[in-house]
Write a structure and sequence with these properties.
Length: 772
């Protein structure tokens, strides 16, 4: 399973949309200027409670950091979903960056995290999602003196890449363990090494550091994503060379340079030199110091990760003598992966563990040594091929979808240990507890000592509270399951219980990413979904409200899911897939498809929620209508509608031709429009400066019109809004502590529960809001 298809695929689309104009500069007078009639209310009338619809995990966790001074204080970083703190009492993760607003969506990508071992209340985050144009903002150092409850920020003069290649290396950000006002940051893109001497408030470049890195994954990539210099990738202090209050003298720094991957300072960062005798030909993903025994360990790979890597080695450097020793668990000839995850048991420093992060088949590999790397044992070994023996048991009953709905043949098993296993940490206070991150979850064990005594360690998900899915579409049918979701990387789920992890993701077929889904309004048992896959099928149907699925045929040339719409009665469908020269329609369940006329390829499509013959489309400022089941479309309204930027529109259930359209771009048409004549004309809501989503829910008590929900800027305020009077007035229902960065993909109310809303995020999962 390739995790993080949104990384860059789905998040790239979101990022491209954002770059295309969804972001507004907070200081821009034009962005703040109200239109003809400002919204009548942006204050909260009802207090809302927000929590995740449970999936548990669903994305890449490239870093886990334990505090070295305080027991049970641990953090996890994600590539697009923010940072988390471990809550030992609840055995769950607590999100820390939900306060990030729309204009700072890029800071939800965390490239590194540092917990202060002198003052455990302090924690630092290096934030920024992309180093290329997809993220219009620079990176930042976020600092907290209350364990992430609140934050202050310093914007850097360059970008950071929490979702860039090489994001599993690190940690790039480190606090001096002797003088905790001193921090170092390894920067990407040729920006070198940076230092703060005032607890992260101000930063300056370490001009004496000689090497900003040279390695790029693919120099020919014109987008700047694969061609970025991965830079300075980790910082490690030798705490023995300092004393409390005095800066640590010896510092090791890893650089993405296959010929010069480790540098050292012995004068508290004043001067630097390449460490003599070091290995060449590989990139050091991690550098961890065992101060008790005087060893610096490196895990290396021929590539930057997290997906690639075909060869690697593990090295040990004796700091007292300068001796380098190759202590790789496997011979070079037998290695088909790179090494990355690296941890030392602080209670038993001769014990260390490493991961083969890019061992995709038959599974990832974890290695353990109790003699400083002289000998190794493995999490699994081949016996007589294809059979394997295991030093672990694995129970995913808490997150059962981690089987990915597969039933592989040996040597593969389900569930897997994981993939992209670049984060690996033994609890510094408990030799029996170990956690590691994968492309989909956090796994852990609390009986790690069994590994060495002939027993088996018990591996279970340790991911509750960490919600990292990127959400593309949401639907809340009037009957059946309350919520259906379309997600990046893990397809999506049918939630029959919003507070329980679903038993399985969508299967038969399984998509890597679901891009769009719909149900028949008057027959909600009929559901359709489309998505991305290496090959067909990319469309699936259900006749039992999404509980079970069967695949449909597809037109030739399909390369991606695009958007799909179901007729109100479920008797037909319209599909606008990626890669084809047309939009298509079908009756029945897609045994054959016919090209629709009058509508351009790639248009977004939706259905009328009352008239089963009526479908709608939109592209590049023009709205299209079909009255014959999608066979032919006619261009209707275009005047005043947004010609640029992403647009999302929906038809109101139970009322033919009642359409709401949201979207646009700064500098052009941008806002919320309403039509009551099937798109012949649209009226722009003057009080809504910007809007990006629109959804409907149960009408308020005494109201005659369904409740509207939107992620928008109204009255100069960015937020999540509700209207109970058909858009005449709006109430903000989130607050500054609950903003979640970018929320522009999808929103829907619940048709059965007044006030309940479901909202998509790009990396913080599905949010559910209820009136408190």
């Amino acid at each position: 399973m390739r995790s993080n298809g949104r990384r860059p695929v789905g998040a790239l689309m979101a990022a491209l949309a954002l770059v295309g104009g969804l972001l507004t500069a907070a200081a821009s007078p034009a962005a703040a200027r109200p239109e003809a009639a400002p919204a009548r209310s942006t204050a909260q009338a009802d207090a809302y409670t927000w929590k995740n619809v449970r999936v548990d995990g669903g994305g890449f966790v490239p870093g886990i950091v334990f505090n070295r001074k305080e027991r049970n204080l641990a953090y996890a970083r994600t590539d697009i979903g923010g940072a988390y703190r471990w809550d030992q009492s609840g055995k769950r993760w607590v999100p820390l960056l939900d306060s990030l607003d729309w204009d700072h969506w890029g800071w939800t990508g965390v490239v590194s995290l540092a917990s202060d071992s002198v003052d455990p209340d302090k924690v630092y985050v290096a934030a920024g999602t992309y180093t290329n144009s997809w993220d219009p903002g620079n990176g930042a150092i976020l600092r907290s003196s209350n364990r992430g409850a609140t934050w202050q920020s310093t914007t850097l003069p360059f970008k950071l890449g929490g979702n860039m290649p090489g994001r599993g290396m690190g940690e790039r950000l480190a606090v001096d363990p002797n003088r905790n006002s001193v921090l170092y940051l390894g920067a990407p893109s040729g920006n070198g090494l940076w230092r703060s001497t005032d607890s992260g408030v101000t930063w300056s470049k370490v001009t004496s550091f000689p090497n900003p890195g040279t390695y790029v994954q693919d120099a020919s990539d014109t987008s700047g994503y694969l061609s970025d210099n991965q830079g300075v990738v980790w910082v490690t202090f030798d705490e023995r060379t300092g004393s409390s209050g005095s800066a640590t003298k010896t510092i090791y720094v890893g650089v993405a340079d296959k010929d010069n991957t480790v540098y050292r300072s012995t004068d508290a960062g004043a001067t630097w030199s390449r460490v003599a005798g070091q290995p060449t030909g590989y990139l050091s993903h991690k550098g961890v110091l065992d101060a008790k025994n005087g060893y610096l360990y490196l895990t290396t790979s021929d590539k930057g990760g997290p997906y690639d890597g075909e060869k690697g080695q593990v090295w040990r450097y004796t700091t007292a003598t300068g001796e380098w020793k190759n202590i790789s668990p496997m011979a070079d000839a037998d290695t088909y992966f790179g090494y990355s995850g690296l941890t030392v048991d602080r209670q038993k420093p001769g014990t260390l563990m490493v991961t083969g992060y890019s061992s995709w088949w038959p599974d990832t590999q974890i290695f353990r040594s109790t003699d400083s790397g002289a000998t190794w044992t493995r999490a699994w070994d081949f016996t007589s091929y294809p059979n394997r023996s295991f030093r672990y048991t694995q129970d995913v009953s808490a997150v059962p979808w981690l089987t990915f709905g597969t039933n592989p043949t040996p040597p593969e098993v389900t569930p897997k240990l994981g993939w992209m296993t670049e984060a690996l940490e033994i609890d510094p206070f408990d030799s029996n507890r170990m956690m590691y991150g994968t492309g989909a979850t956090v796994y852990g064990t609390e009986n790690l000592g069994n590994w060495d005594t002939g027993g088996k360690i018990a591996i279970t998900p340790m991911v509750r509270g960490l919600e990292e899915t990127a959400v593309n579409d949401l639907a809340s049918p009037p009957t059946g399951a309350p919520l259906l979701s379309a997600l990046g990387d893990i397809g999506g789920f049918r939630h029959t219980d919003l507070d329980a992890v679903p038993a399985r993701m969508y299967t038969s077929p399984t998509f890597t990413t679901t891009t769009s889904l719909d149900y028949a309004e008057t027959n909600p048992n009929t559901v359709v979904r489309v998505g991305n896959n290496d090959s067909a099928p990319r469309i699936a149907f259900s006749t039992d409200n999404g509980a079970n699925w069967f695949q449909g045929s597809e037109p030739s040339g399909v390369t991606g899911g695009g958007t799909v719409a179901a007729a109100a009665d479920g008797g037909g469908f319209v599909w606008a897939p990626e890669g084809t020269p047309a939009v298509y329609h079908t009756t029945g369940f897609g045994n054959s498809w016919s090209a629709s006329s009058g509508i351009p390829a790639g248009a977004a499509v939706e259905s009328d929620r009352k008239n089963p013959k009526k479908f709608y489309g939109f592209k590049a400022g023009t709205f299209y209508v079909s009255t014959d089941g999608g066979a032919t479309f006619t261009a209707r309204a275009s005047a005043g509608l947004p010609a640029d930027g992403p647009v999302r529109f929906k038809a109101l259930p139970g009322a033919e031709g009642d359409i709401w359209l949201a979207g646009g771009s700064t500098g052009g048409a941008y806002g919320l429009w309403h039509s009551t004549d099937s798109g012949a004309t649209f009226t722009k809501l003057s009080g809504v400066q910007q809007a990006d989503t629109i959804g409907f829910g149960k009408a308020a008590p005494g109201a005659s019109y369904q409740t509207l929900y939107t992620s928008a800027r109204i009255g100069g305020v960015r937020g999540v809004f509700r209207s109970t009077d058909a858009g005449a007035s709006w109430t903000r229902i989130n607050d500054d502590a609950h903003q979640w960065g970018w929320t522009g993909a999808s929103i829907t109310g619940d048709p059965r529960v007044y006030g309940r809303v479901y909202m998509a995020t790009n990396g913080r999962g599905i949010l559910r809001g209820d009136i408190s």
